[in-house]
């Protein structure tokens, strides 16, 4: 066995092969779970999580994948095919690339798989081949996907099928590493528990531990029929496995998916970050020991000297790819609230700092902008909007609400105050706004506009702007609703008037104008917010 790199540095042409080799790494962490998650702690039960998630590919199948590929060196020149929609194909793809620069792994995947998992496979460069029908198929079914792949590899020279369900390299990898590591780390181990998919992990680890200490009991955790958890199978789907599981699995325990997801969330919250099958293993372990306790048999599992029970379960992968499922399986009340939730439905158009201009830059862009010399009696605010036929187009996606969350009717605010009516000034002879490519829109209230404004700025007044309204979620929503109404309202220039025009939006603080610019840009208008207090007036 090569010695682990003490400083965890892997270099040279085979740096990745070293990094992926368990013999060149320290043993994976074995962490006792906190008492809060161990209802049997007072009964002398200590529970340890074996973090296979800390493998470089972050899942339980990295070890079998490595052994299966090492045992088939020809595979580097072949197309590798495997029936798996998760850990095994991901591991095969990553390891084949690291060992050989191999880039041709095909995952045969049920079309019932969650789109996130399909994306994950694409992310890792896997070619995916979908199949219909039963999602979790029997490895021994002659018409099933595994048999088809077996036949394909037998008849086509260029195809390698590692075959996780049949390959002895699968369970032997866990005998060699998972079992051996646990034995070195915790020789006082009494119970080992893992979920059962191919059965490789529990068979191999059980084989090693039982060889070293025959009293070690093993618990294989399965899904309930019709209530799957990603990775493990239900028992009747496993029984035909060719692995030597009968001598290495003492007892089976099934666990519901809701319990599995909830337990992995609790483990993750405590820092043992893991996916649903890991929670399922913990639940199965606890359920089995609780049943033993109820039957007065717990002492049979304990070390005769210390009277303690040291139990190990496997954390098999990470939770992130299953977020949608967590929110389906676990009730809403078990998640903390989101404060300011109304902001999920409004003000979603993207802001871009490049669309905020200093007054100087705005002036340059507009070919010079000057304060109006007679603001209370000028004709800057031309009657530009009355004949308008054409409204601005709606933004392509999100302005009416979140693309991610349905709009809950309960979060709507009262509609904003009536749009203030203003007496419009007479049209001017001056056609500055018509001929200039830049339109200045002043969104301050009417009286502020009358006191001072930029020459030829149009006044499309909003209600007075609350101070620092971005700090108040309800004020943000109110402001957003008001701007939305204004943009679609009677004082707003029509799409035709704005065509091939640049719009400068001016307000008191720059906040409302920034919001309006984001909304205008989402509607295809080339708009800029002018930053800073209003023109020194
Ligand atoms: C997330 C996860 N947990 C558990 C298992 C079961 O492991 P095994 O196939 O060794 O029984 C798998 C198998 O793919 C898995 O992907």
From TrEMBL:
It comes from the Eukaryota. CDD domains: RHOD. Residues 380-431 are annotated as: Disordered. Signal peptide: none annotated. Residues 397-413 have a biased composition (Low complexity). SUPFAM superfamilies: Rhodanese/Cell cycle control phosphatase (SSF52821), Tryptophan synthase beta subunit-like PLP-dependent enzymes (SSF53686). Residues 434-532 form the Rhodanese domain. InterPro entries: Cys_Synth/Cystath_Beta-Synth, Rhodanese-like_dom, Rhodanese-like_dom_sf, TrpB-like_PALP, TrpB-like_PALP_sf. It holds the Pfam family Rhodanese. This is Cysteine synthase B. It comes from Immersiella caudata.
